[in-house]
């Protein structure tokens, strides 16, 4: 998983699309991130397709070398129309702090 920080917020993007972790996160509504030796509980808020473009662009700018092959030739420099086209294929979740369980 590649955690993206964009405009002061944290996001998880599903480069491979509707995978099992996406299904699980949708059902659970949150989880725990292991960051080094620190565990951080979180609530996940799914981002609507119409709001994904700037997040996907930032994600591709940061992580394209690792995950670019999963984005159908779209890159951080692609036109907005291309990013809108692939948005439904890549779930995006905003990570918000949640109390430890």
How would you describe the overall organization of this protein?
The chain has one domain (3-97): Electron Transport, Fmn-binding Protein, Chain A (Pnp Oxidase, Chain A), CATH 2.30.110. The protein has 3 helices and 5 strands; from the N terminus they run ββαββααβ. It has 101 residues and is an alpha+beta fold.
Largest beta-sheet characterization: 5 strands, antiparallel
Provide a count of the helices: 3
Architecture (CATH level 2) name: Roll
Number of DSSP-assigned strands: 5
- Structural category: alpha+beta
What's the shape? globular
Feature tags:
101 residues; alpha+beta; Pnp Oxidase, Chain A; five-stranded antiparallel β-sheet; 3 helices; 31% helix
Topology:
Layout: E1 3-6, E2 9-13, H1 20-28, E3 30-35, E4 38-46, H2 53-67, H3 80-86, E5 92-97
Antiparallel strand pairs: 1-2, 2-5, 3-4, 4-5
């Amino acid at each position: 998983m590649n955690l993206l920080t964009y405009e002061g917020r944290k996001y998880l993007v599903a480069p491979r699309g509707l995978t099992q972790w996406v299904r699980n996160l949708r059902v659970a509504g949150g989880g725990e991130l292991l960051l080094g030796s620190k565990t951080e509980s979180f609530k996940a808020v799914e981002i609507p397709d119409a709001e994904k473009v700037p997040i996907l662009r930032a994600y591709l700018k940061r992580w394209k070398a690792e995950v670019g092959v999963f984005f159908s030739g779209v890159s951080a420099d692609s036109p907005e129309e291309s990013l809108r086209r692939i948005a439904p294929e890549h779930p995006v979740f905003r990570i918000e702090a949640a109390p430890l369980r």
